[in-house]
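Here's my example:
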Amino acid sequence: MTPDRQFPRAAVARRHLHSTTSPREDRTPWAAMAGIIATVTVFALAQGLTYPLLSFILERQGTTPGLIGLSAAMTPLGFIVSAPFIPPLARRVGGARFAILCSILAALTLLAIAWTQEVWAWMPLRFLLGFFANPLYVISETWLISIAPAPRRGRIMGLYSSIVSGGFAIGPLSLGLVGTEGWPPFMIGIVAFLLCGLTVLAVVPRLPKMPHEGEATSVGAFFALAPLLLFAVFAAAALEQVLLSLFAVYGAALGSAEERIASLITCFIAGNAALQVLIGRLAERFGSTHTMLFCALVSLAGCLLLPSIFNSWLIWPLVFVWGGVSFGIYTVSLIQLGERFTGQALIAGNAAFASVWGVGGIVGSPAAGLAMQLIGHQGLPLTLGLLCCALALFLMAERR
């Protein structure tokens, strides 16, 4: 006889206990989440605008490609350097104050960039732009994971990733409206940074405090707590940055027109933005580890299929799905971070994510570029395929 049949009242009480969720699991604070997502989306729009804008200006000035690339690397370097300072500063200053301060400082930095228009002055300024941008992403993701109800965390983080990706993609598109000369494009970015701070200010009463429970965890200490999770973030960053920066070189080597390559990159970004809610839903249903393994294997399949179908119509659905699953690795990493960590370890984890994303952005493109230089243009899918294969093998080993 089962315990439930022996003690029917106890069984009813136990079932009632399991059906009663905590307020955090039961209620979805939509207003706070909308404010957080709107804040970081506006910020992503401003950042998405600055990358191509500054590259166009430097190219017009006759700057060498290597120097343009070095200038662009300053922003992710700012991400890496700022990461260890974010958890203690957020606890001491308060998340909302810190986010508002960073948005103002980012606006002032972009103003200085617009004022100087000189490559060597831009090096430290672009570093500062990354330094001030990073805390906003870390704080926003920590807020969102903290207030997202556990049963809906996958969909909410997927929605967050989709909207932020869309904001980042809108940035370059806005250059088609205002051009790349003079103050107008810079003013869009400056106003967007300031709107970010105003949005945080508007939703301050609804925002949670920065988590203080648990032992203080540094960014360095978090690397020992979740090395595979951080490797997944590194892989997602490298996949995205390599494809965005070197796909044009790969397509040109195969004789593809610039317009077709640009359209394929747009298709990749569209898949990136469109599929994150679906991936989040899969994580809720099948578990975050299984879903991450699925994303890694599909990304690997994309690497293997790319050379054979690049010139056929099948490249379009491939690139769309590839964009979704490659960034889905990061979305699922955020979901797993919320499942495994709380309190001060959570904000340390988000800061570590930002640091590793910066490393992936800096290391990925040069490594793939070197492979293409040594073995030809197929070094691109080979490099990315090895990375996806390593992630898949590590995930399978962890499951066992």
